[in-house]
Amino acid sequence: MELTWMGKYRTFVEMLIKYGNSYAQSYNTEGDYGISTVFSPSQLQVLEYILENEEKNQNMAEIAARLGITPSAFSKNVKKMTQKGLLEKYHTSENRKNVIIRVSELGRKVYEEYTQFAYRRVYKEIFEILDTVPEEYVEKFTHILEISARETQMKRLTQKEVTLIKIDE
């Protein structure tokens, strides 16, 4: 059966799905990425977010919500990364239940190694292509990715919601 609903965008949608599937397969798989410490892309995201937002002193629940992952998944990543020496945990003086996470010196070194590796391996080529694209097109493409991410995060519709959608049609 020929699928025609995507029209001329079939190849684009296929590549978007392929990227999503590829990333999903690697998300929790630890690798060495050509550097001194093994970690997973999900751990890298945690490390990167904490580095970018150090001055905010956010607690673990706030960071998990911002990253769009469950507190449990966040906590597992933090535990693994703390055991590797990439992160350090601190309690706030006002509330011992609030745990503040900081990137250790080793974590900073590993992140620097990773960014150099990732730039050479992937992002240099992507950035060179993006440099040839007008800024407004980059913004539109970014918006397309944002829509795709938002919709893939949607929870499954309940039967009641499906029924209401059908009634509205």
Question: How helix-rich are the residues, as a percent range?
Answer: 55-70%
* Class derived from helix and strand content: mainly alpha
Output the number of helix runs. Answer: 7
- Secondary structure tally: strands: 2
Described by strand count, sense and barrel closure, the largest sheet is: 2 strands, antiparallel
Helix and strand pattern = HHHHEEHHH
Describe the structure.
It is a single chain. With 169 residues, the protein is mostly helical. The chain is 62% helix and 6% strand. The longest helix has 26 residues. The model has no long low-confidence stretch (mean pLDDT 85).
SSE topology sketch:
Elements (H helix, E strand, L loop, with lengths): L9 H17 L14 H12 L7 H8 L3 H13 L3 E5 L7 E5 L1 H26 L4 H19 L5 H10 L1
Antiparallel strand pairs: 1-2
Helix pairs in contact: 3-4
Write a compact overview of the structure shown.
The protein is mainly α.
List keywords for this structure.
169 residues, mainly alpha, two-stranded antiparallel sheet, 7 helices, globular
